[in-house]
Amino acid sequence: MNIHFIAIGGSAMHNLAIALHKKGYKVTGSDDEIFEPSKSRLAKHGLLPKTEGWKEENIHTDLDAVILGMHARNDNSELIKAKTLGLKIYSYPEYIYEQSKNKIRVVIGGSHGKTSITAMVLHVLQKTNVDADYMVGAQLEGFETMVKITDAPVIILEGDEYLSSPIDRRPKFHLYQPNIALLSGIAWDHINVFPTFENYVEQFKIFIDLIEENGFLAYCENDKILKELAETTTKNITKVPYSTPSYYIDNGTTYLKTVGGDIPLIVFGEHNLQNLNGAKLICNQLGVKDADFYNAIATFKGAAKRLELIAKNNTVAVYKDFAHSPSKLKATTKAVKQQYPDRKVVACMELHTFSSLNKNFLSEYKNAMSDADEAYVYYSEHTLAHKKLEHITPTEVKKAFASDNVEVINDSKQLVNILENKNWNNSVLLLMSSGNFDGVDLNAFGEKIVG
Q: Is there a contact between 333 and 361 (Cβ–Cβ < 8 Å)?
């Protein structure tokens, strides 16, 4: 097979390119800008384009397929030529379905927690020697790439609800048609694509209806809207709810209560414990026994930037997290405060996504960081301008968060200076963003705080 990737540098795209290269396919690609770690990974496998930019000569009749990334525009010259030649053009989720339509497809969806649940499932399957392909949205310890496509009988897919490609406006998770599925919860996101909450919820209803006949759905019953969707569907599937398991925290470690004894965990927080219970149901469907699941999950450290520990000593700990939506902020901040009840928790988040910077969406953040002792909200005027969004003021942002503990800052250097000059004795710093606070090396910064 001869495959060309338009916008090969994307997070999912470059991992799929590497996976197909490993499978023996001839892979080429192009992009107008490629950043790390995509650049080094592509170079390692001889897939890095010699020059940046779009070139019509990359598109020819010898290609079996063209895979189009979200970064490309509708007027992309390579895309136009591929259409002119009548080549088969796929989005990456569409192509993954093509590669997995004869496998058992497991799809993990939901507004929050899907990366963590997918990572938990993969960790357990690896530890219990269950052969499975996968696609996950974060780098995992013990896995070289985020995509694996082989002849394995099962594939585990993180089911993102965002659009598939510039010319395929379907949510990604609508393309996979799972045999086994999980939904973790519904909290309005991607306002630029789903302008109303009702429209957003509809995408999850459609997803449930796309589960294969006689399939399986695990769902978090703590979410009332999701529970109603699951219970009212007429689809002929098995539906199993899950919720927070019994646990306790002792001296900074979370212990899971099980019939076989108490299990110490590396991860923590009620949302992660719910994720764990969901992951167990999926693993059970794939033949993993509870005892083997618990034995494996005890060594799970989490996915990258999901309550990831940067550094700590006896008096201070620094974590980073991908959290940016209201529900994720609330769950992550609450988890850290519960884990460290006797320490001051300082939470910092960056408004970075289209939704988070949208004036009409800001009110969704009400009390999202109220569990922190101190909270800082950062946003960049440059990012607002780049996304062509209406101007917002620090006063408007503070009013939206509706918490006295929140201070709003739109100067990255000022935020860094404030944090560097704090007394961090008996404290925890939580850095939450899908960006990097405008150029801050979060790992180096965290290590500096710990000293």
A: no
Give the separation between CA 86 and CA 59, rounded to whole angstroms. Answer: 11
Residue ranges per domain, the chain? Answer: 2-87, 95-297, 308-450
Residues 6 or more apart whose Cβ sits within 8 Å of residue 422: 346
Residue among 362, 277, 366 at smallest CA distance from 330: 366
User: Could you count the other beta carbons within 10 Å of the beta carbon of residue 146?
Assistant: 25
- Tell the CATH topology of 2-87: Rossmann fold (3.40.50)
Mean pLDDT in residue range 83-92: 97
Q: Which residues pair with 427 in a beta bridge?
A: 316, 344
Burial class (CB in 10 A: 0-12, 13-18, 19+), 428: buried
Average pLDDT over the chain reads 95
Per the listing, tokens 């796309």 go with 210
Whole-angstrom distance, CA of residue 33 vs CA of residue 315: 42
pLDDT at 16 over 90: yes
Q: Residue 401: CA atoms inside 13 Å, Cβ hemisphere, count?
A: 30
Q: Comparing 2-87 with 308-450, is the CATH topology the same? A: no
Taking only the tens place, the pLDDT of each residue in 388-440 is 899 999 999 999 999 999 999 999 999 999 999 999 999 999 999 988 999 99
| 259 Cβ contact partners less than 8 Å away, ≥ 6 residues apart | none
Q: What percent of the chain clears pLDDT 90, i.e. is strictly above it?
A: 90
Output the CATH code of domain 95-297: 3.40.1190.10
Q: How confident is residue 243, by pLDDT bands cut at 50, 70 and 90?
A: very high
**Residue 139 has what pLDDT?**
81
Please name the fold of domain 308-450: Protein-Tyrosine Phosphatase; Chain A (3.90.190)
